[in-house]
Design goal:
With 397 residues, the protein is of the alpha/beta class. The chain has two domains: 198 residues, 3-Layer(aba) Sandwich (Rossmann fold); 168 residues, Glucose-6-phosphate isomerase like protein, domain 1 (Rossmann fold). Helix content is 49%, strand content 14%. The protein is built from 16 helices and ten strands. The strands form two sheets. It has a five-stranded mixed beta sheet, sandwiched between helices. Strands 3-2-4-5-6 form a five-stranded parallel beta sheet, with helices on both faces. Helix 4 packs parallel to helix 9, helix 10 packs across helix 15 and helix 12 packs parallel to helix 15. 41% of the residues are buried. Bound molecules: 5-phosphoarabinonic acid. 5-phosphoarabinonic acid (PA5) binds next to loops.
Length: 397
């Protein structure tokens, strides 16, 4: 269940002037087109692929101690976001799930190689292009280690490649060696790919119900996503240039990292866009709360809250911890509103697959709609090629 409050912590907004744009954008989405397959959930994943994911994930669970997911950006953040949100804090998943290829830390790779030494490994390399620097290096190093440890036949049972259905170096490697593969849908970009094989295989390995996740996504109201996108657009035009995705449950930390990529890459182009940032509250209130309340007034917030139903009592107050957390959420939002820092409030009743699925699709819709409202192509990312080229030039000197 998604409860949306676009009133209590916002000044009133005039939606009517957006009517023409709304029907225009609805037409674009409904007609489909380049990079729009994520919008139609039946194009994200087919029943046949769901069955295959279930079979392969069960195989992975039975046959390894550590499942390494190698990927970056849209090929990693969605799975990590969902798994972290759903996982207990102190009990490790079985198999243990480790992400690699998300940095160029030599230290991380060295320690990882040592750590997996005597353990049974299965890896899932996820890269649509197959050429991304960080996962390519991580895969190379882990693959070398696995080639020493396992026979060619055994490697076939331990390497799973998720990549473009036809093109690329990883597809070629899989074909040459008969490795298990999954196809990244051609018309879905990384940041919109969590509800495809990219996100769903690791999520299934972690033991979470991918049917419920997809069912949640199917039940999102597009009108609410339009409302949210329009509010963001109005705030942007009022010079609110930073959106803080604020959460009061630290398990959502990576969900918000995923949101930052989704909105940042979708809308930050042509010298336009709202900078997505995040606030892990109440922790960050003790470091950044001063700025939010009293600093440069360029911020608005989108708060993701969880309904309070606290049980854990304490001797200090007559409220359970969860209820205190909700009181904090509301009072902080009021304090911010008093100085013009407005907030959208999005509440779920609990963290489960269904609600996380709803949140994912709601935000995907809102990000794309926001891109159209801003007059940018929501699905390209020309800005990331500039630095990549310079790094490549230097590496190939
Ligand atoms: O959203 C995107 O397109 C990017 O974040 C990509 O997912 C990321 O750069 C990884 O690309 P690839 O899957 O080609 O390795």
């Amino acid at each position: 269940m998604l409860k949306i409050d676009f009133n209590t912590y916002l000044k009133s907004k005039n939606f009517e002037k957006y009517n023409t744009q709304v029907s225009h954008i609805k037409n674009i989405l409904d007609n489909g087109g380049e990079m729009l397959d994520w919008y139609d959930l039946s194009k994200c994943i087919s029943p046949k692929e769901i069955d295959k994911i279930k079979k392969v994930s069960q195989y992975i669970k039975n046959n390894c101690d550590i499942f390494i997911v190698i990927g970056i950006g849209g090929s990693f953040l969605g799975a990590k976001a969902v798994i972290d949100a759903l996982s207990p804090y102190f009990t490790k998943n079985k198999p243990e799930i480790i992400f690699a290829g998300t940095s160029l830390s030599e230290c991380y790779l060295k320690e990882l190689i040592e750590y997996i030494d005597n353990k049974r490994i299965i890896i899932n390399v996820i890269s649509k292009s197959g050429t991304t620097l960080e996962p390519s290096i991580a895969f190379d190093i882990i693959y070398q280690k696995m080639q020493k440890k396992y026979s060619k036949e055994e490697l076939k049972k331990r390497i799973i490649i998720t990549t473009d259905p036809e093109k690329g170096i990883l597809r070629k490697l899989a074909q040459e060696n008969d490795y298990e593969t999954f196809d990244v849908p051609v018309q879905i970009g990384g940041r919109y790919s969590v509800l495809t094989v990219v996100g769903l295989l690791p999520i299934a390995v972690a033991g979470y119900n991918i049917d419920d996740l997809l069912f949640g996504a199917k039940n999102v109201s597009i009108d609410l996503a339009f409302q949210y996108a329009i509010i963001r657009d109005i705030l942007y035009k009022e010079n609110k240039l930073v959106e803080l995705f604020t959460f009061y449950e630290p398990k959502l930390e990576y969900f918000v990292e995923w949101l930052k990529q989704l909105f940042g890459e979708t809308q930050g182009k042509n010298k336009k866009g709202i900078l997505p940032s995040s606030s892990n509250n109440t922790r960050d209130l003790h470091s950044l709360g001063q700025f939010y309340q009293d600093g440069n007034p360029i911020i608005f917030e989108t708060i993701i809250g969880i309904e309070a139903n606290g049980k854990l009592k304490n001797n200090l107050y007559n409220y359970a911890v969860e209820d205190i957390n909700m009181i904090a959420l509301k009072q902080v939002a009021y304090a911010h509103l008093k100085v013009g820092v407005e907030s959208n409030l999005i509440i779920i009743d609990k963290i489960n697959e269904y609600n996380i699925g709803m949140l994912i699709y709601f935000f995907e819709l809102a990000a794309a709609i926001g891109g159209y409202l801003l007059g940018v192509n929501p699905f390209d990312q020309p800005g990331v090629t500039a630095y990549k080229k310079l790094i490549e030039n230097e590496l190939n000197k």
